[in-house]
Write a structure and sequence with these properties.
This protein is mainly α and 229 residues long. The chain is 71% helix and 0% strand. It has helices at residues 18-25, 27-51, 58-65, 69-75, 79-101, 107-124, 132-137, 143-164, 174-184, 187-195, 202-222, 224-227.
């Protein structure tokens, strides 16, 4: 009697976990989940901006997103988880813009455009919302998210600087120091403007700060020609 040949099961792809398998098997479900997660993040950002982190509840976010609160908790464990995810998304978006810009412009041109673009957004906001950046930055409950975002910013800019000035980040600190200087130079202009948005022009404040920081950063980066860094 002839034996029935065994059907070999396909070998699983290395690194493909349960989530990957689910995405392949249920693409529509995965897309719905992605859209729901994106909607939640957008709503959370709006609510944190309007009423503050402490005053916003998970129930409020669920109601505004038109989902059950149980669904919300399936995506995010807490408000801290939401804030952390918002910071991560912002860094990823910045990294994409930076990567796309590398071929056509130097770091300092890119940085200035980013800073002034943000100033334009803040200028178009209502005055009642003018101090939002300053308030969120000093919110103790949001400190971890802002720290995460600033760390991500510095990493993206350090990568850009290293590529632009042909530096090896593993061999020296110049790219990271220059990136930290540029990120920090934006803090004072925002804080000064937030205290008196009707009397100060944010774009002018930023231009002055970026000019000073860029000059200092270029001097730091020029040290590579002397030290060989």
């Amino acid at each position: 009697m002839a034996k029935t040949p065994k059907t070999e099961k396909p070998e699983p792809v290395q690194g493909a976990g349960p989530a990957t398998a689910a995405e392949v098997k249920y693409p529509r479900r995965t897309e719905r989940r992605r859209r729901t997660r994106e909607k939640i993040l957008n709503v959370a950002f709006e609510q944190f901006s309007k009423t503050g982190f402490a005053a916003t509840t998970m129930q409020t976010i669920a109601d505004e997103a038109d989902i059950h609160v149980t669904t919300l908790f399936m995506h995010f464990n807490s408000k801290n988880d939401l804030a952390s995810s918002l910071a991560a998304v912002a860094v990823d978006t910045l990294r994409e813009r930076a990567w796309a810009a590398r071929a056509s412009k130097g770091f300092f041109e890119f940085f200035r455009e980013e800073a002034l673009a943000y100033a334009a957004i803040r200028r178009s906001a209502q005055q009642s919302d003018a101090a939002l950046w300053n308030n969120l930055r000093h919110d103790r409950e949001l400190a971890f998210a802002w720290t995460q975002y600033e760390h991500g910013q510095k990493d993206v800019y350090a990568e850009y600087i290293a590529a632009d000035f042909k530096l090896d980040r593993a061999a020296g600190y110049l790219a990271d120091l220059a990136a930290a200087l540029m990120v920090e130079c934006l803090i004072l202009p925002h804080e000064r403007w937030a205290t008196a948005p009707g009397k100060r022009k944010l774009a002018d404040e930023i231009e002055q700060a970026v000019d000073l920081a860029e000059n200092a950063a270029r001097q730091m980066l020029a040290a590579k020609d002397v030290t060989g860094a």
